[in-house]
């Protein structure tokens, strides 16, 4: 059931028409009475009928017919113009689904999709008061800290490698080091599993390593981190020459990365093998002070603020033919993501927009919203974003229980760039295989980058 909401400052059409008719009647009657009094004339029956009934009805009818003609003439060109782009617009269904072969996580509440899903059951996982980070008044703040980021041995190993490879002065902050340690653990875990995709004979396909690093990292640090990840991935059986990075490790969104991989898979050329990893950390007093000065830090008096968080998440993906060719490979399918247009950058909650994205995301696979087994989103603790997600799920997917069927990763991980959405995809893969049904993955934590993607079990 949908509810029509009148825009601020607007009036329903029936009420507006009634006001116009009343205005016309008042003008006609007032004018006639004023004329008869001024001229000291007593009107007859015919004059009364003409002035008080026929004239007002004629004016109202003329206004109504004129408005209809104007609307009809203006609607015709708009309809013709709107139909052309729809015919020329490429369909997402033309892009094939990718196979998610494996996932890896390092999060504050679990080191795997299974652990995190268990911890988040009932949506009761929340950031806690941090033992080190404080606000301007010296009180602890809420944060989502990951103990795996404090691996000093791995940090020393990475630092030594930078020094040996002419990158000793990279200048990572403590938060960036924490992100790099978490990301390294995920890359190593997925790279060890990528060996299962190596062919028994012949040249192996290229392993595309696609890091999703925080957008505010300088280019030199992005290059250093990506180069280290490449070295790390090549130490688990995949030939170093076949592990490649993007030409420029520039900022990218998860949806754009997966879309590019799907376009490559559609060319039916060489097999697609990709390792996508996102890592970030905002567990540092410098970030806390910066967010507090900008008014974006979550506090009891600012519930729409951000909770500092950290983590890493990654996916090992292939094209469908390669996944099917490897015996014993357990995988889920990731369909192309549907993204909201750039004009939808308002901060207000918009469940209708999310519902439209969800409908478009499930359509290529022939799925229906009422058949979804689960919804996993990167949504955090901010009320507007939560209301938007719950408004969409309750109206479009009434079969889902809000506590068990709709998981909000951001409430457990805090704010940490693209990590919550990639984590949501990993949870969606786990949920699709365990529950045996399609899972919708939603990104709405950033209002201007809303998107939805379907993760589903392979067809029988």
Structure description:
The protein is of the alpha/beta class and 460 residues long. It has a single domain (93-456), classed as 3-Layer(aba) Sandwich (Peroxisomal Thiolase, Chain A, domain 1), CATH 3.40.47.10. The protein contains 13 helices and 13 strands. It has helices at 13-39, 45-88, 113-119, 152-164, 174-194, 219-233, 254-266, 285-294, 320-325, 351-362, 383-396, 410-413, 419-435, and strands spanning 98-106, 128-134, 140-143, 207-212, 243-244, 273-281, 310-319, 332-334, 338-339, 374-377, 406-408, 439-443, 451-456. Strands 1, 4, 5, 6, 7, 8, 9, 10, 11, 12 and 13 form an eleven-stranded mixed beta sheet that branches. Strand 4 (207-212), helix 6 and strand 5 form a beta-alpha-beta unit. Helix 1 runs antiparallel to helix 2, helix 5 runs parallel beside helix 6 and helix 10 (351-362) crosses helix 11.
Q: What does the oligomeric state look like here?
A: single chain
Content of β-strand? 15-25%
**Helix proportion:** 40-55%
* Helical stretch tally: 13
Distance between the termini: 34 Å
What number of domains? 1
Instruction: Write down the Rg.
Output: 30 Å
Order of helices and strands: HHEHEEHHEHEHEHEHEEHEHEHHEE
**The CATH homologous superfamily:** Thiolase/Chalcone synthase
Do you know the CATH architecture?
Answer: 3-Layer(aba) Sandwich
Q: What is the CATH topology descriptor?
A: Peroxisomal Thiolase, Chain A, domain 1
The average pLDDT value, as a whole number, equals 84
CATH class: Alpha Beta
The total beta strand count reads: 13
